[in-house]
Write a structure and sequence with these properties.
By secondary structure, this protein is an alpha/beta fold. It contains eleven helices and twelve strands. The protein folds into two domains: 127 residues, Rossmann fold (3-Layer(aba) Sandwich); 176 residues, Rossmann fold. The strands form two sheets. A seven-stranded parallel β-sheet has the order 8-7-6-9-10-11-12, with helices on both faces. The protein starts with a strand and ends in a 16-residue tail after the last helix. Bound molecules: 2-keto-D-gluconic acid (8YV).
Length: 316
């Protein structure tokens, strides 16, 4: 009989396909349903996506829980300390999505500064024959500030170097090996750059890290790019900053209450909105699904998992 896995939330079809045939995937289901499910006591693995919530109650409904395998690099929806207290391992899918997320960050920078959605609309609406488009802002050479200098932050920096952008960053700690300027606070960083790009983990430690004060520091010629988590930005403060030109514009792939961006964002001309598509390409999502499935396979083969989250890496 195939092992039974619980899906925390609807799984990406590629993840489901990678699990098919080897496991029986049940769920998602309410805690009430789970509490009375016939297979509850034998489920050792929860499969989840990067945005899934895996709260203590879900874990505690599964007495045999040993692994939570997240298809996504972010795992802020998983209560990792609780998983550890239950002796369960948490895995995620780092690295395979670095290029895509970094590509999207640059795409958002180019789109917002060069006003590409407006340019496209200008052509489609037949306005070109009647005159020229208003001039845009040059991206090359603008000073870039990166919040979170992990693997994706570094991939963004590498790309930005080709655009002649001087690079500064803030992170939990200074990384002296990198040739970029470190600032200890996000506010200080914001005051020194033209484009502030967020690629830091979500969760309590970064909640509303970008608030009204930081946006004020970024200033009227500054742009905010968010490819991290919506929770990192105070979205109400951002709406205010965009509508009163406290900052010049924003490119946002993530939102506080997905899939519902703040209603006023939809009406603003100085913001570009994408539906959390940082890693959403065929090849990257396939690689993420394969890696998430590999972690499960390793667990059942009694082998060390491939990509534990950092908090669990000493338990590899
Ligand atoms: C995906 C993500 O949206 O990796 C992450 O942390 O946010 C995204 O790549 C999602 O995890 C796909 O399941």
């Amino acid at each position: 009989m195939n092992p039974v896995l619980l899906a925390a939330t609807p799984l990406n079809p590629l993840y489901l396909a990678a699990l098919e045939g080897r496991y029986t995937v049940i769920g998602p289901m309410s805690h009430e349903m789970l509490a009375v499910h016939a297979d509850r006591e034998c489920i050792e693995v929860i499969a989840a996506g990067g945005e899934s919530k895996v709260p203590p109650a879900m874990m505690d409904a599964l007495p045999a829980l040993k692994l939570i395998s997240v298809m996504g690099v972010g795992y802020d929806g998983v209560d990792v300390p609780h998983a550890i207290s239950r002796s369960a391992m948490v895995t995620h899918t780092p690295n395979v999505l670095n290029d895509d997320v970094a590509d999207l960050a640059l795409a958002l920078m180019l789109n917002i500064t060069r006003r590409l959605p407006q340019a496209d609309a200008f052509v489609r609406q037949g306005l070109w024959a009647k005159g020229s488009m208003p001039l845009a802002t040059k991206l090359s050479g603008l000073r870039l500030g990166i919040v979170g200098m992990g693997r994706i932050g570094q991939a963004i920096a590498t790309r930005a170097l080709a655009f002649g952008m001087p690079i500064a960053y803030t992170a939990r700690s200074n990384k002296p090996d990198l040739p970029y300027t470190f600032f200890a606070s996000v506010k200080e960083l914001a005051s020194q750059v033209d484009v502030l790009t967020l690629i830091t983990p979500g969760g309590a430690s970064t909640h509303h890290m970008v608030n009204a004060e930081v946006l004020q520091a970024l200033g009227p010629t500054g742009y905010l790019i968010n490819v991290a988590r919506g929770s990192v930005v105070d979205e109400v403060a951002l709406v205010h900053a965009l509508s009163t030109h406290v900052i010049a514009g924003a490119g946002l792939d993530v939102f506080e209450h997905e899939p519902y961006p703040h209603a006023q964002l939809l009406a603003l001309d100085n913001v570009i909105l994408t539906p959390h598509v940082g890693s959403a390409t065929d090849s990257t999502r396939q690689a993420m699904a394969d890696l998430a499935a590999l972690n499960i396979e390793r667990y059942f083969a009694n082998e060390p998992v491939e990509t534990p989250v950092p908090e669990c890496s000493n338990r590899k």
